[in-house]
Amino acid sequence: MTDFQSLGLCRPLLKAVEANGYETPTPIQREAIPYVLKGCDLLGLAQTGTGKTAAFGLPLADRLLADPEPVLPKGTRALILAPTRELVNQIAANIRLFLRQTPISVTSVVGGVSLNPQIKRLSRGTDILVATPGRLLDLVERGAVRLDTASVLVLDEADQMLDLGFIHALRKIAKLVSKQRQTLLFSATMPKQIEDLAATYLTDPVRVEVAPAGRTADKVAQSVHFVARADKTAFLTDLMVQRPDDTALVFCRTKHGAERLMKKLKAAGIAAGSIHGNKSQNQRDRAIRGLRSGEIKVLVATDVAARGIDIPGVSHVYNFDLPDVAEAYVHRIGRTARAGASGDAVTLCGPEEIVLLRQIERLTGVTLTIASGEVPTRPAPGQSKPARPPRRPRSQNGSGEAKTGAKPRRPRNRRRTRQDKKVA
Question: Which architecture, in CATH terms, is 4-209?
Answer without folding.
Answer: 3-Layer(aba) Sandwich (3.40)
